[in-house]
Specification:
The protein is of the alpha+beta class. It has a single domain, classed as Nucleotidyltransferase, domain 5, CATH 3.30.420. 43% of the residues lie in helices and 19% in strands. The protein contains five helices and four strands; from the N terminus they run ββαααβαβα. It has a four-stranded mixed sheet, with helices on one face.
Length: 168
C-alpha cells in the first residue's frame, strides 16, 4: 500500500483571495518504507534542535520560518533559511520518497471554476495513475492500493469528491 500525505498552500477561493495560486503537494511512500522515513525525519528534527534550537514539537513551515516567525524569531533568519535548505536536502536523500504537486493558477479562471475540486481531482488522478502504471520508486506489491492522509481541509467537500470519484 502506498501512503500519500497531502498538504495545501494558498487559498482555493477565486474572489478576493489573498493568493494567486492554490497548491497541493502529496508526499508518497510505500508502507514498507514508512518507518525508515519516519526515523530519518526524527533524526533531522533532532539535528535542527541541536544545531539551531528548534524544539521537536514546534511546527516546521517554510512560510512561517521565512515571513512570520513569531516565537521562532529567537532563531536567526539565516539559520531559519539554512534549516529549510537542509530539510529539502534530507527529503532528496530519501530514495523511495515520491512527490506529486498540483498548482492551480487562479488568475483568469471563470467565476464557476472550482479550484479546490479540480486540484484534488488532478492530485487523486495522478496518484491512481502512478500506482496503476507502477511508476512510484521503492517496493511494490502486485495488488497495491493507496491511502490519502491530509489535515483538516474542506472535509465535507473532499469526502463528497472522493465518493464521487470512487463511483465513476
Amino acid at each position: 500500500m502506498y501512503l500519500m500525505y497531502v498538504d495545501e498552500s494558498g487559498d482555493s477561493g477565486l474572489v478576493r483571495s489573498p493568493t494567486r495560486y492554490f497548491v497541493l503537494t502529496g508526499i508518497v511512500l510505500h508502507e514498507l518504507r514508512w518507518r525508515d522515513t519516519l526515523d530519518n525525519l526524527i533524526t533531522f528534527r533532532k539535528a535542527m534542535r541541536n544545531s539551531f534550537g528548534l524544539k521537536l514539537r514546534e511546527e516546521f513551515h517554510a512560510a512561517k520560518l521565512v515571513n512570520n516567525p513569531k516565537e521562532l524569531v529567537r532563531i536567526k533568519r539565516h539559520h531559519r533559511l539554512e534549516m529549510i535548505k537542509l530539510f529539502a536536502e534530507t527529503l532528496a536523500k530519501i530514495s523511495d520518497l515520491n512527490i506529486i504537486n498540483v498548482v492551480v493558477d487562479k488568475q483568469g479562471k471563470n467565476p464557476g471554476y472550482d479550484v479546490f475540486e479540480n486540484a484534488w481531482k488532478a492530485l487523486i488522478q495522478r496518484f491512481e495513475n502512478t500506482m496503476s502504471y507502477r511508476n512510484f520508486r521503492g517496493p511494490a506489491n502486485p495488488d497495491d492500493r493507496g491511502m490519502i492522509i491530509c489535515d483538516h481541509t474542506q472535509d465535507k467537500k473532499l469526502f463528497s469528491l472522493v465518493r464521487k470519484i470512487e463511483v465513476v
